[in-house]
Design a protein that fits this description.
Length: 219
């Protein structure tokens, strides 16, 4: 049995800046993290792997499904809006009902974190915005296709080496995908207000849910 991996659920509040001891300005993202009750503890013996299930931001029972309400009730808690599993390398000491707070990162002296979020959705976009294409000529007399992608391939069968090849960069849906910001420096923690200040930008809009965990590749 070991202490659980430093990980917590939260939501992005916004960005600001703080000043270090030398007076240098540090851009930080403010994340409201926890408190997160443990809704379920999974073990390799029963479930095939070790993990804990955390919940964040209580939800109204009238807006939840009955199975979700009963699942949270087993842990002596209420249903939550954001529920995610955190994999563990071995069984943990904590049990269902235990509440995880930002103090866990202070106890384990975590300096760098990985933050998983969902990027801002941009809808359907053209090649200039989506891929950074330069566009076509914008001088007088040129056909009005200044933001067009241009030629995308010759006619014919793909089997003969012609046509549109797979992976061709074209217009399409942009954003609204899961991304991980790795090795972000954890600047400070506010235990009283459940806040984390993380250097740099974090994927997602204000109010977007995120998963913060100890960095895998940087100690």
């Amino acid at each position: 049995m070991c202490l659980m991996k430093a990980a917590i659920l939260g939501k992005k509040v916004g960005m600001t800046r703080v000043f270090d001891e030398d007076g240098a300005s540090i851009p930080v993202t403010v994340i409201e993290a926890g408190p997160c009750p443990i809704l379920q503890v999974k073990t390799a013996k029963c479930d095939g792997y070790d993990a804990i299930q955390l919940g964040f931001l209580r939800a109204k029972p009238s807006r939840c499904r009955r199975p979700d309400i009963g699942h949270a009730r087993k842990a002596g808690s209420e249903p939550h809006r954001f529920v995610r599993e955190i994999r563990q390398s071995e069984p943990v000491e904590q049990e269902a009902g235990h509440v995880v707070t930002v103090a866990l990162f202070d106890v384990q002296d975590v300096r760098f974190v990985d933050v998983i979020g969902t990027t801002i959705g941009k809808g359907f976009q053209g090649v200039m915005k989506r891929h950074g294409f330069g566009g076509q000529l914008a001088s007088h007399g040129v056909e009005r296709k200044h933001r067009s992608a241009g030629s995308i391939g010759g006619s014919g069968d793909l089997g003969e080496g012609r046509g549109v090849k797979r992976g061709k960069r074209m217009p399409g849906h942009m954003g609204d995908v899961q991304r991980t910001a790795r090795n972000q420096r954890l600047v400070s923690i506010d235990k009283d207000r459940n806040l984390m200040l993380i250097k740099g930008a974090i994927p997602g809009p204000k109010g977007g849910f995120v998963i913060v965990s100890k960095a895998k590749t940087k100690s």
